[in-house]
Amino acid sequence: MSDFEPGLCTVTFRSLPPEKIVGLARSAGLAAIEWAGDAHIAPGDTSNARIVGLLSARAELTTSYGSYVAPPTDDLIEFRRALESAIALGASNIRIWPGTRRRDSKDYSAGERRDAAKAIRDMGAEAARHRVTVSLEYHPRSLTDTTDSASRLIDAIAHDNVYLYWQPRPGLELGEALAEVARIGQHVSHVHVFAWDRNRNRFPLASASDYWRSVLTALPASRWTGRRFAMLEFVANDDPAAFIEDAATLKQILLE
């Protein structure tokens, strides 16, 4: 049904050490891990990144690096530190935040949007030199907090090494989700998967199986040419048992 493979974002288990997370991902039969830059691999900590990369490789888990670099607030120097960790990890992709974190896209001037697009374009070019792709978090209170803003931003960046993630805003209705992916799906590399309501209450992924099945089926062909991952992000009560159940649900969705 889908060309996505199952994965995990380690922000799901901020308090667990990498070896425990690798064990959980392997026991759940996942294909990839996105390692959090604010919890498990700090930017520039290449020694730790190599250790975590080796743990991941031994478990046959592809890696991505989930950084919190936020251009244009963070510049190319900050990005290079995160990129060093991504390279040491062996990651093929690095995630960054578009715009200042916790700032709504509607509050940016045209000049500030141009500055953000240029900074991201430069980061995409720098990462391409090391054969690492750049993907933008798709998230409330960022320059991708609406589909219109995300679409305008990716068009302004205009770099073939920069892509979008996609995830639903908490409580997003299915019809709106389908409209979003129809508009920006051609730029989507990976997706973050969870089951939340608009109040950010978390539920078993099984309660949203039809939702995610519909979204993943509806995603149009993308210019992304690599392996694609649907990555679990957060589970009910941060419970490893809930994660194992959600992973089984996700794998079933992807197989159907």
From TrEMBL:
SUPFAM superfamilies, A to Z: Xylose isomerase-like
Keywords (A to Z) from UniProt: Isomerase
One Pfam family it belongs to: AP_endonuc_2
Residues in Xylose isomerase-like TIM barrel domain copies: 24-251
Gene3D superfamilies according to UniProt: Divalent-metal-dependent TIM barrel enzymes
Domain of life according to the entry: Bacteria
Molecular function GO labels: isomerase activity
Protein name: Xylose isomerase domain-containing protein
Organism: Rhizobium fredii
